[in-house]
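Check these lines:
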Amino acid sequence: MNWAIFVSSHLRYDIAYYHSEIAKMLKCVNSENNFAIYQFVG
């Protein structure tokens, strides 16, 4: 699910803090910026 769609359905997350954290997460795609894998298990 795309972040913009998620936020439009869950307005409590439409604040600067969450936008900042998501932006950091999206930058973690290579070893230069560290690396993280996010996986939904549910």
In short: DSSP finds two helices and no strands in the chain. Residues 1-42 form one domain. The two ends are 14 Å apart (CA to CA).
